[in-house]
Each structure stands twice: as C-alpha cells, then as structure tokens.
Amino acid sequence: MKVLVIGAGGREHAICWALRKSARVKELVCAPGNAGIESIAKCLPVQQDNVADMLHVTDAVQPDLVIIGPEVPLAVGIVDALQERGIRVFGPTQAAAQLESSKAFTKDFLQRHNIPTARYVTVHTLDEARTALPEFSLPVVLKADGLAAGKGVIIATTNAEADAAVQELLPMNGSLVIEEFLTGDELSVFALCDGEQAAIIAAAQDHKRIGEGDTGPNTGGMGAYSTDLLLPDDLKTWVLEHVAQPTVDGMKAEGYPFRGILFIGLMMTPNGPKVLEFNTRWGDPETEAILLRLETDFLDLVDASIDGTADKLDIRLKPGAAISVILASAGYPASAEKGVVIHGLDVALPASVEVFHAGTAHNEAGEVVTAGGRVLAIAAEAENLRRAAGKAYDAVSAISFKGMQMRRDIGWRALQRE
Length: 418
What we know:
Structural class: alpha+beta
C-alpha cells in the first residue's frame, strides 16, 4: 500500500513512524514533512491551507490512502475534496471538523446534546462582550472562535485583562466565546470514530505553559505523558457513554457524520468531568507519547474509521507509561529563531526512545536546523512514568542547539503520586 501523510510536525513524524511498523505499508510519502520525516518517507512540498495544491500533490503521488495530520487542511475541506475524487482518506469532513474550527459551534453543540461543559456566551462585538463579562466571575476564560494554533485562549484574572483579551481575540475571527473558568486537572482522551460508533484509544495529559510548574504563556504544548492510571475503566466508560458516543450520535443526527480522531479535552472538576474543547485530529505532543504505547497496527485504526468498524477493533496499548518532552526554539512562543544548527541527533538511542522532529529543516550544508517554535519531541516508554521520564531526559541531555528551551518537569503531578 502507498500512503500519503499531510503535515509537517512531530505528530506527523510519529504517524509516519507508526506506519513504517506496518507490514502493509510499502511506500510512504509525507507532504511537506520535515528533516526527520525525510529519513523514513519521501517528502514533497505542499501548501497545507490550499486544497488545490494538496490535490495536485495527491494526483502526483497516486496514493492508496491519505492521512490528514493537522487541523488546517481539515478546516479548509481537503477530506471533502479527496472523497469527491474517490480517494480513501482518514479524517473528518469540513463540516464535521467544525468541532475544532469553531468554538462557538462546539459550545452550542455540547449544549444541544446535554454534554457537560462550562457555562458560556458567544459575542460578536466589543459592546456585547463588555455587557456579558460582568455575568462571569474572575478568572474568566476568553476564546477566539476559530483556529489559533493553540494560542487563541486567554485566562483573564482582572477586569482590565479581560477587556484587553477581548480586544485582542475578537478580531481574529469576528466572534468570541466567554466561558466560566473551571478548576481541576486537565485530561485529553482520544477516541476513534467511524460516523456511527466511537471507541476510546488512550488518554494523555499535556503541559501547555512554557515554564516549569505550569507558569508563563500558553504554547502549543511543551510535553505530554500517557499512563494506564490516567484512564481507569470507570472513567473510560463514562467518557465513552457521556461524551464520545453522544458526540458521534449528535453529529450524525445533524447531518455531519464524524470519522477520524476525536480529541476530547476534559477538565476533571469537583463536580465531575466537563468538556473544555474538541480537536478533530491527533494532538501534538500527545501523539508522540501515545503511539509509542500503541500495539495495534496503526493502519487498523485508520481502516476501522473509514470502514465503519471502530467498535469491533481490538485497540491494544503497552502497559506502563510514555512521555514526550518538547525542545523549543529561543523566543518561543512569541517568536522562533530559525536556522540554528541542532547537535547530537546522531547519538544512538535505546529502542524505547524516539526523537520525533517537529520544526526542523536542512540548511545548504546539509545540517539539521531549527525551522519552527517547537523543534523536537523526545519520547520514551517504560513500565512506569518515572522510568520513562528518566529515559527521555537522558536522551535530551545529548541534544543541544543555541537558545534551546525545555521543561524538566513533564508529568510532575503524576510523578508526585507515584
């Protein structure tokens, strides 16, 4: 089978790595890919926000299967375009991807289908926002209604911060969700969906803040971990029955059958779990940890979603834990220093450790250099989180580049409980 993966980050490197483990994959192409993906797949340039360009690449590759990694290609409708051509594709349609591309749509959907979430209001003007804000206690959460690369959310702790956040976020997409602030631990649960049924794959916990102890600005994610303990059987059943399956049922009833990965962002509040957000694809950096644990053939997940057999698939994970640690460029998340040479990538690693490239490229001399904010994800798996973290950070110590940022406390809450 020839497979084309659309995307360029650590998630796509992990997906390509997982695909390479399948005996059924004979040829692998990634567009646009990165310096790490080039070692396991043929990489071709593509504009990920341009349907015509993605179709041009697909025509050139003639794949048996296309797997969409990031949110932007989904939001612009690449799945619809590929399906119209009769091409087998993994991911939701543009209408189904509204669960990620429009926060207002998602909040209204959750309310319509009685799926637990925070109290909210959607506003479209500055005056509407200023009228609504006094109805919410501080701190208050403000979300740009649309894709914002993980940076469209501000938690305001004062009235002045809230007003400034409204003025910053409202122009992004012309509308804004103001939301009740929830307290508790965040949890990401990944479900495989086939338009009719949902099946829980795994859970992970992301670390969004740039600084240790969860301080500083939000990022796209500075690391994540996945363990058996995050998703005990009773919680797994609850998420399936109260969130994942009702979402699939609701999307089908509304005429938008959802196929692909449903990323469920939960807040484990004192009053029970509540949905913070949905993403409609694998998360990053959660994927780099989860796929290290996945024993089921990755292609079996894809086939089950496309063929309508998600509830019949035996999804198996290695027991224990996995972790991914992000190495980021100087200036991230506000900016990213590019073109900086990365050292230590040629160091031999244990079998249970992988280096997934996120923002990398080759310079004219053939050296691997930084090409984005998040540069590398160092992932490791072991029988428990402490061992996995030790392996990952040992591997991190061999890698360096000027201005490199990282957090040394990924998984700290869980480690305190071990």
